[in-house]
Amino acid sequence: MSLFNKKEKIMLQSRTQKNVTAAFEDFLREVSRWEVNRGLIKEWDTAAAIKDGLKKSVWVYACCQKIAPDVASVPFTVEKKVGKDYERVDTHPLLDLLDRPSLSKPHSSIVRTAEMHLLLGGNAILYHPISAGLPKGIQTLNPATVDPIADDVGGIKTYKRSIDGFPEEIPDAPRSVLHLMYEDPSNARWGLGRMQAAGDIVTASIKAVEWNNNMLDNAVGSDLVIALKQYVQHNQWAETVGKFKDMYSGAKNAGSPLIFDQGAEAKQVGRTPKEMDYIKSQEQAMYAICATFGVDPRLIGAQEFSGRAARQEAERAYWIHTVIPEVQMWTEYMTVYYKQFWPDIRVSYDLANIEALQDEFSGKAAAGRTLFDMGVPLEEINRRLELDLNLDDVPGASEPYGITLSRKSDSRKSDSRIILWRRKDGERRIWEKRFAESFAKGLKKDLDVLADVVQNGESVTNYEDTIRQAWEERLSVSHTVLGKFFGEKKYDELVSKAKNLKPGQRKNFDATARVMADFIRQVSRAKAGYIASTTILRVRNLAAEAVEKGLALSEVAQRIRDQAEVWTEPLERSRAMRIARTEAGAGINHANYAARQQAITEFNWKIDKEWLETPDTRTRDGSTGEADHTSSGVGGERVPNDQPYSNGLMYPGDPSGPAEEVIECRCSETEHVNTEGETV
To answer: Strands, DSSP E only, in 219-371?
Structure first.
């Protein structure tokens, strides 16, 4: 019964004016209840979106047929709360429900249909028959037939479904209804469909198609004017037009010659630019509709950028920016809904077998390996890169370098020392790369200057001091920054572990102390001289070889410039990297040495240092010319901080040592501290 039929019934039941007044008040109360309980007036609801969008626009259809199956292809998983975390489970009543939601339809079919409803109308309604307090199945309802009924505070107290035009309350609603929606800021109870946003564009596109079809079927209508030189009656005009259309309009009569009686003249009428813009308007509609749905046009038939690589990149971007957020929304709604039955679960998803994301996973795996080599624990890598790896049975996953991969090891190299070395090596590699990039620019600049010198017929030897000064400045700046950073880091690390410091006793690392200043000055000067002399020698040899071949000075200069590529690319195996690795190792280890010495002086502690050799096959053993050092037996050696190791070095990379012990050394140190009987 409609609202106004109710009013008529109430008024007819009144017998007196008093009763009429009371009846009218009843009517007003009925109005109030109707305003609260009435269904929604839905713009572009699912029915309209299917009729006027999905069934009429090829681009709407293509977008929906792309997204819905892809969303349905992602498997949902169930995780159960264990302590503060959630762990994936293989058996659970919810998994059974998702695996077999219906006797006639698989879960993927239900998700696919519901996702189509969601895309078109902004709402998806999944009904769950309840038995013994738990859902026993899943059915997709057409949102066009469903109304959410508000309670007195604007929430949803139930859902009604229209069957053959008669609304009936859905059993056990709202507990039995999972309602997914795209949020509409103006309506908390009903979602905003994408078709509502794209409605005008879709309508215009459909109108354009209709117009174009009419133009094809009635081509003479606007292209041709028949002028008669004598007056004709209306019935004669109608008869002539009908015969003319039968003879010349339509595809089958295209190109037929026009034959007129005397006194008739045909004139061609050109189309306006607006009429001729059909193709362009359809293209614009395609882009607008695809943007609304989040689908790259090339994935649904657009010819532009149709190369395989471009399509693969578009597919990956589409999954990341459209499908995964859509699946994430599904899991969030499902988690909230199913928690009323199983409070300790949440719904997640598994992307491991999605082909479009395999390259993305490979990239993440490569990034994970880099982070692992830098000392980041596997659990942290798994979390940051969202790899979704099960590390429960992996020993040491929470520790830096918890797994030894293809590393040479023996009884002297305990797991703890290997882990510690890898953490320190990861820190060093970050700095050596920064230095290598800077040093590569310096080498290129040196060679550009020397090439100009040779081209001008001057001697490169005269510029050796200029190059030396430039390198001395570069190295001085690098070691100053490095020493301050690692000196402060080591000093703070030592002092923070002490328990018996008095208030005010703790100080800061002195990066300007003599031990630091002397190192920076001496090392920068000595290394700069060596680098400059090596550069000059190589350039002189290049010039001599070129002159012997009779090359012009300009060609000699070009050969010198080409040497820059040899010295800087690839960076990892370049001269720039060799210089950077040598200087970073020496600078870091010296800063640690200086920090320990300062702590010894200030707090009267006893600190021993221990040599951590490189735990891989690149460690030199004295019999080969490869890898890090010839320190046979020095690994694991422990001596007081102010005493040298048995190989004569104060620390790994000590510049006072021979080149074969120092160049590209990747060894490190740890320390053992005794503060009045307290071991740190």
So the answer is: 224-228, 264-268, 345-349
Name the DSSP class of 271.
Answer: P
The closest of 385, 589, 638, 386 to 489, measured between CA atoms, is 589
Q: Over the stretch 458-508, which tens digit does the pLDDT of each residue have?
A: 888 888 999 999 999 999 999 999 999 999 989 888 887 776 666 666 678
pLDDT tens digits, one per residue of 178-209: 999 988 888 888 888 777 766 666 666 666 66
Total number of domains in the chain: 3
> Would you give the distance in Å from CA 252 to the centre of its chain?
55
Q: In what order do the strands lie in the sheet with 177-181?
A: 139-141, 123-127, 177-181
Q: How far, CA to CA in Å, does 396 sit from each of 400, 404, 598? A: 8, 10, 34
Q: pTM for this structure?
A: 0.46
140 inside domain: yes
Collapse the DSSP code of 341 into the 3-class scheme (helix H, G, I; strand E, B; otherwise coil) and give the result: coil
Rounded to whole angstroms, the Cα distance separating 89 from 458 reads: 77
Relative orientation angle of helices 308-318 and 358-373, to the nearest 10 degrees: 80
In-domain check, residue 391: no
Residues 25 and 72 in one domain: no
- For residues 130 and 175, the answer to whether their CB atoms sit within 8 Å is yes
Neighbours of 418 (CB within 10 A): 18
| 13 and 110 fall within a common domain | no
Identify the bridge partners of residue 179 per DSSP, sorted by sequence position.
Answer: 125
Tokens for 38, please give them: 């009435």
Query: Which is nearest to 126 in space by CA: 411, 319, 345, 337?
Result: 337
Token digits of residue 571: 């960076």
Check residue 495 and give its pLDDT. 83
Whether the predicted pLDDT of 328 surpasses 70: yes
Helix (H, G, I), strand (E, B) or coil at 105: coil
Greater pLDDT, 500 or 74: 74
Report residue 654 as tokens: 């000590």
Q: What pLDDT is recorded for position 39?
A: 44
Q: Assess whether 30 and 167 both reside in one domain.
A: no
- Name the burial class of residue 679, with classes exposed (0-12), middle (13-18) and buried (19+) by CB atoms within 10 angstroms of its CB: exposed
In a domain, 352, yes or no: no
Average pLDDT over residues 51-57: 77
Q: What is the domain range of residue 661? A: 415-679
